[in-house]
Specification:
With about 325 residues, this protein is α/β, with parallel strands linked by helices. Helices cover about 35% and strands about 10% of the residues.
Amino acid sequence: MTTDASATAARRPGERALAELGLGAPALDPADASPHTFPGGGRWRTEVPSCEGPEALAVILKEASRLDVPIHRISQGSGVWMLSDAEITEMVEATGERDIELCLFTGPRGTWDIGGSTRTDSRGGGLRARGHDAVAGCVEDAVRATELGVKCLLVADEGVLWTLHRARAAGILPADTTLKVSALIGPVNPASYAVYERLGADSLNVPSDLTLDHLTEIRRVSGAPMDMYIEAPDDLGGYIRMYEVAELIRRGAPLYLKFGLSKAPGIYPYGHHMRDLTLSTARERVRRGRLALDLLARHGADGDMAPLGSRLPGELNRFDIPA
């Protein structure tokens, strides 16, 4: 999973004009570049998040075709339990036809149950699974989703992650199931990133306010794929980092570029009462992806995309599972 091929960077935004004005930036340090790639080649993949059902998926696929936006993964945020078997099957079939990975969120979360700690100033336990029954609900969702053909599960609790990793190792879940850590509990330092990897994470969504140096620090201890919102939803800060995309890839590879959307109301948990908003924001996320890809192309940094259809994370470090 390592390479030295991308230690050099493409043109940086405004570089030539600023150099002529005597305002050129210091040269990039090749030591800051991530040495890692995805298995099978490539340093970045794409993800369209917040796809809340078959109708939103159809909008995303149509817009991606119209704007020529390559997609490796499509993820959903409301949860497996908010979709019927028929809806999940329709999404599995539609993404399977295009060789796109479908990722569905697992189970109950602290923000939606009876716990009030998330509404205190400290925000309490956040989205974690509160109690045995919540963990059981997440496992129920995972088993149901994978039996219907879903190959990627999104988790927001360390205990659920470890439990699903053990279930995968035991054959309760298919061996090629991938586990993705939610941005809502994303690690913010190299030590915690390495722990999540060892607990079974196959890709980890880090908060979008991590600095470039933070990404380099993480890449010195782990090659596990990283997910990052290039544009984050408002409840995750609303950060827009399009002009940094080339450098985010150079520092953070292997990296999923997530095309989120700021200045948009939350849509979780989704229902048909939010249909118009959900479809319009789904369409706009794809357009935002096109804008980010256009920036990469203008800076000569659009090469090294992982092959479409690739989804596995490669060899990762894991804690031993007790017998």
